[in-house]
Amino acid sequence: MAENLYFSRDTKVFIEFDSVIWEMPVLDGFSFSQATNATEITLAEMESSTGVSRRGRRAFNDALAPAEWSFSTYVRPYVSAGSGTGAADDEASHHAVEEVLWALMAGADNYDTSDYDFDKGGTSVTTHDGTDLDIDFDSSNASTLSTFTIYFVLGAANRKVYKMASCVVNEASIDFDIDGLATINWSGFGSEITDVSGSTIEDTVQPTDGDTTNDGSAIAVGDIWLDSNDSYRLYKLTNVGSGTEASTSAVYEDTSATDNFIRNRLTVLTVVPTSQDPDSDGTDELEASYNLTLTGGTINVNNNITYITPEELGKVNLPFGHVTGTRSVSGNFTCYLNRTDWGDSSSDESANFWEDMKSIDNVVTNSFALTFKVGGASATPRLEMAMATAHLQIPEHSIEDVIALDTTFEALPSTISETDEVTIKYVGAT
């Protein structure tokens, strides 16, 4: 019998939410795992009259830890073709391959043709039109988020299909690697990983009543179909045995395109203080704006999610559910230390930026509008992340071949109960 090995480069990832499945192209370095929480009991006693001291121990499995997943995707905006199998929209609107992850992170609880909505508040998490795709966090003030399912399809033969149920997006991180393509690192949790390879059928056409899965069982609702006539794209059977077998609809538009990547090197940052006189002493300590050319940086959006697991004795408990923590948007950006002319008192470059920030060290909370335009100020495609009221720390000098400044920021809401720390905009290539 030939030995079958599974290579990470053969892996495909799919996301199921609200009866729709998205194909999610991921980069090398993805991971998924689930550990066990165990308790150890030890003996510690003095010697008996015969000189014996018992030193044994016992171990007990208490519970399965929450499943953890992580993977990276490129930032890939596009304009929908408006029709065709796998299309994201029925109109020529702007979308992104990874938009479903942003929508779920921001509180969406349903998907309607092309938009992600929050029914409890009657609001839309995404807005698609012919100009751009907007994602906001208006619906993210919730103690729990909607869950979804991730499928990892491993191998190029004798495929293994792992299902991670009740997943949530915990963190998204964008790193500005100056020589790389714009990439988002995603991570989160799930309740349990199961092997559903036995409930999978590989076929060139949609299975019909009487077909069987890998384990020899008759196909049933919930089984997985890998379309071997279409790169083994994953579907879930939703209606079997009625003569009108059906499967989940799929979104995979532009997942194979090569014109929707974004180069980090073209990224532009604008820094505008909310007030040029933050200490209200009648003197403007800050410039109207600062011209800072980035050499690197990161943006992190974090839901700070924790999972709750029961603690009953005598059984291995399963994770019950999750709760959200404080929503956090933070990061840093770096730039070279430069100044054009010492005689120019209105210089808006980085040396003056440090001096101005140092001069307002008596201001408890400062406020700046930061706008990162990843890919360029007006280029297409691009990703924009705007933070209207970010708190900046005094930049730190980084002593390297070329002296640099490293500035850490915290994006804050306009009021403590608001959700406007960050807004996200995608613009596809036109």
What's the helix and strand layout?
Blueprint: E1 12-17, E2 20-23, E3 31-33, E4 36-42, E5 57-64, E6 67-74, E7 77-79, E8 94-96, H1 99-105, E9 110-112, E10 115-118, E11 123-124, E12 126-128, E13 133-135, E14 148-154, E15 160-175, E16 183-190, E17 192-195, E18 200-203, E19 224-227, E20 233-239, E21 246-247, E22 249-251, E23 268-273, E24 290-292, E25 294-302, E26 306-308, E27 321-323, E28 328-336, H2 350-359, E29 368-374, E30 382-392, E31 396-398, E32 404-411, E33 423-427
Parallel strand pairs: 2-22, 18-19
Antiparallel strand pairs: 1-2, 1-14, 3-6, 4-5, 6-16, 7-8, 9-10, 10-11, 12-13, 13-33, 14-15, 15-16, 15-17, 15-25, 19-20, 20-21, 23-24, 23-29, 25-28, 26-27, 28-32, 29-30, 30-32, 30-33, 31-32
Helix content: under 10%
Rg from Cα = 26 Å
- Total number of helices: 2
Poorly predicted residue ranges? none
Oligomer: single chain
Morphology call: globular
Q: Beta-strand percentage?
A: 35-45%
Beta strands, count: 33
* Intertermini distance: 53 Å
Number of domains: 2
On the 0 to 100 scale, the average pLDDT is 91
The largest sheet, given as strand count, sense and whether it forms a barrel, is:
20 strands, mixed
What is the structural class?
Answer: mainly beta
